[in-house]
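Example A, followed by Example B.
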Amino acid sequence: MEATIDIARKRQGGLSPVLGAATLVVLATLSLMVSQIAEVRTVEVVALAATGAFGCLAVVWLVVDRITGGRMQRRVAQLADFVETEPAFCFLTDAEGVVLRANQAARNRFACKDEDRLSALLRDVFASSEGIVYRMQQKALREGAAVEDVTSHSEGYRIYVRAFHADVMLWRLENESQRAGGRTRADLAVISLGRNGAVLYMNPVARELVGQRVKRLDDIFADLPLRTDGVHCLKGSHAGQSVLVHSADIGGGRQELVLSPIAEDAGRQDLMGSFDGLPVPLLKVAPDGAVMRANPEARRLLNLGQGEPGHVAEHMEGLGRAIKDWLREAADGRGLHRSEFLRLTRADREVFVQVTLNRVIEEGETALIAVLNDATELKTLEAQFVQSQKMQAIGQLAGGVAHDFNNLLTAISGHCDLLLLRHDQGDPDYGDLVQINQNANRAAALVGQLLAFSRKQTMQPEIMDLRDTLSDLAHLLNRLVGEKVRLTLKHDPILPQVRGDRRQLEQVMMNLVVNARDAMPEGGEIVVETESRTLNEPMTRDRAVVAPGIYVSVRVTDEGIGIPQDKLQKVFEPFFTTKRTGEGTGLGLSTVYGIVKQTGGFIFVDSVVGQGTCFTLLFPAFETPRQEAPVAVQKEERKLPEQGTGVVLLVEDEAPVRAFAARALRLRGYTVIEAETAEDALNTLDDDELAVDIFVTDVVMPGMDGPTWVRKARERRPDTSVVFVSGYAEDAFGEGSEEIPNSVFLPKPFSLSDLTETVHRQLN
């Protein structure tokens, strides 16, 4: 028994002091009874002892219940005293929602008495008081407290409930006039909107301002749609009155509008409420543009600090006309309430603002209130959309122009080749013909840049090590940079291979190095560094997402003048250049961009004005299973004969190209049958007695295209060889189309020897 009492004493710390003491008393009584039972050893004594023990226990629990109940009543009384003088309506209820106590404000407003249910008292305020009370009560029991803004029949309330105990809950209700200390909130016009824009609630100030109770926004404002933190004109009895509208989301799909009238007479010379306290950037501006006053929000947006505000033109630009003319029109009452988008002249970042002007009169003098709204995200999205549309249009234009140019260049260079066959080097016209040929080749290179930008350039991909490619190119790059500039190559000792067109990647490096050289007119160092880079997670940068994987990084860094931040995102646009007229075409970096994208890579640029620029290229690593390298077998090059034999069906819609190709093939001994369209070619092949050894056809033509008519013709002539020619890239066949066997692709512009050698290889 002593052990039992010891255990009870140890557990006493987890119980209340009264309950622990009662437990010890009961156990002591039981111990005494047991000792008596041991001495007397009679059944009567045992029964008497048990009855006495349970009687003591009942007395003890009755005492505990009285003490605990008294403590709960004292707690309720203390809470009631604490909230008695609160201006808000306060109630203390039990778990069933029965009112235990109410403060003076609640008793005066609701004429409540004890034992009333809270939901019944609030029924004349809220349409669904039972649902509101039940919902908030359950949330408070789960989380300890709950708060919610509820719109009533005539005014809005903020309801707060706190669960102190499962049987004691404190409710606090604040109406519009009591919130914010009962001072500023009651002076503002407040309107609550539902999910579909319907007007749910208007406080007395809003009803007085609008002139009536309305159901829709159309009955309030004359210049919808609604702009948050914008200036709008009222309808109704106060038609023409300007108000500043601030919108806030109050949950449940509802919005709260705060209307601040803007005065235009000497009696009301400023915004109702506090100019500095409104959560909207505001400027007070003189008609000449001098900033007379700026609230804290405007100072943060304009990055003014605590200095003098200065002039509006010092902080904004990009209106499209003189800012002083814009302000003068507003001061004269023209163009008010029409928003303008301007760009801030902040040096740290690019910020666009939407500015709305309104006129006020102060002591007979006109002033302007400018409401500013940060529109950077909106203008950024707009710029991205316009840029994507422009790039798409230019890409399509470049592809189409390149196709037409390639046809013209094929005819020019082809007929020039025909003339060169009839003139030797001693001929006076030979030099002129060579010049024509060389300039045609330069024009073809320019067309290749256009195609690279539009990602339609024909690629000849191969597996390569960029260290070897750059090492082979180092001699040419050193000649390009000149004597004032040092070129340094740094390579990662373990660099994965990449798959791409060696000629195009060399063009990329030359363009980047030449641009770096031009950025350092006084000399400096250009560092070309390769590195293996592994991305374990997607990398998002400059609106591009780089997937996880292994990449080969190439960085080209210079010590030049740098690129300003406002021009940094334009450097990849075609024909955009910072060089003077005649020094550049503006196609260099756009060509680089097109080649890198066509290869499946990414390009990023970082620059600091006065410190230099770094272009970073990321190419996907090309991984192949390890296997022994096959022994290279050198093929014996065969010299092509001067004359060939066979019948060629030439299909080309461009007459100059068709004329040159036909003459070139006939000069090499081939029999040529010409056709202007695919339909003409199929009609020609209807003659079964006509033997044709090879088709030479354009890919893109009016009517039926090249691959389509070739497939039809091969149904009856399956073994005929094919040479496809096109001014577009090889992907002009269309992705997903079936590959045509025994066919090759010859891009335009092609020379006489290119055409004849390709035909000869296909026939032999």
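Example B, a separate protein, is given below in the same form.
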Amino acid sequence: MRLINRRLIALMAVPLMALLGACDSGSGGDSAAPPDPTPPPGPNISLSGQVSYDFVPAVPAIQEGYESATLDYDQTQAKPVRGVLVKAVDSAGDTLATATTDAQGGFSLSVPKNTQVRLRAISQIVQTGQPSWDFAVRDNTSAGFADNQAAFYALEGPAFDSGETPQTHNLHAASGWAGQDGYGQRVRAAAPFAILDQVYTAIEKIRSVDPDVQLHPLNIYWSPENQPAEGDVALGEIGTSHFNHMSDQPGLYILGKADVDTDEYDTGVIVHEWGHYLENYASRSDSIGGSHTSGDRLNMTVAFGEGFGNALAGIVRDDPLYVDTSGPRQSIGMVLDLDTLDTADAGWFSEDAIQYTLYQWYKSPSIGLAPIYGALVGPQKTTPALTSLFSFATYLRASAPADAQALIDQSLQAIQVISGNALDIWGTHQYYPDNLRPDMRDIILPIYRDLNPGAPIGFCLSETYGEYNKLGNRALLRIRIPQAGTYRLTIQTEDESTEFQLQDGGQIIPESSTANPSPDTLTIDFQLATGTYVGQLASEVINGCTNLLLSKQH
């Protein structure tokens, strides 16, 4: 057996749809050409080896007296590429054999003797049956992106003759880093595999509590052109690393612009975004999205989604440090410590408080991942309320033994959230925390206002804590319908941009008709069955008040 470990070719910019054959429009697989009906020249021989990639750790750093972060290229290490597809292709590019790398990056293939062969590792991890998943890293700046056929990335070795005896060939994806010269024009072959390796780790963590998990297929879009600019994602203008399931090309979008912002080695960022995917597909997220940062007073759906993503980053990696690098030479960044919390950031509206609390629950011997995951994919998915810390903690506590309930109550009290038997999915008995402005009390509480047929209510909104997705920007309504029929919501407001959305268990209820009987009045009709609904009202003229009346028409 001979070892061949020579410089390999990374096909980072080649549209692999053309290279591998037509790709389907799903999250990953490629359709190989039909097998040649001509029998191979004699019996097969075995090809084996290992696929690895350069991993560059993102580490905390002190710059100008402040804690920052950097990619430490001096500590680069080779890690196995786990769970990816490896193909042996002939000189025409036709597939001879396919394998999947194991947990050590190893693979074994059987190919015809005395045949020209290339080995190719594809940026895709697939498992069919039960459990199942399909995750692929693709190039959003490649041809075919608009048609959901963006190119895969691949690592390809040189051609060789398979000979007549077993051979060993290794593939290694290099980072492309060249010291003082940075990345320059070098191919960053390791990046897609670094991203997939975090996904592999996340899958294994979920499988530890759900061995037969069925995960929804997902595309992950990365390119060295992906930068923090808003515009055309096909040009790499993705804004920031994010999860988007509402576009024509749903998936994760990961930054990759050297000396600006790269995230392929920011392991916490990758898992955080994958956490949004998990929450949306395996559970449910009512988050309205938007900008956010540590210390913000957020809409509670946003606070829970972002706090969950950060907590999952710590849970999957068993590491409380969340590091995000950027800037020249990837030497500037930020660090979050999931084991610390400033008391000023307590509250159901704080992603800081939620990430800290969830991570502490995970580390607790009396709770751990299994009940957290169970609450997430179980009752949280169908809650009649909006997804928030209130709903999640209620379900988690209900399934917990007495010692875990006591810990949950203690944790909620520490972040000034209602606890014990007073806790419910609606936050009904939530008290006003001391880290909010006193003059905001009547805007922020109650969490939900009850809107009953025939009983008018009034409320005010505020931009005190920011715009769009911040605390006080929206009114949340709990609407109980005692009898099926047509119901008319009358909204009296000074703002023509007022928007209202009605939900039932996370599903949006369509309007049957709308009208403007006067300049300051909007009416919306709904066909409603008996049950409890959630309404959200938002307006561009935030610092004002609105009156609502719900009436049954027939």
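On Example B: The longest helix spans residues 300-317.
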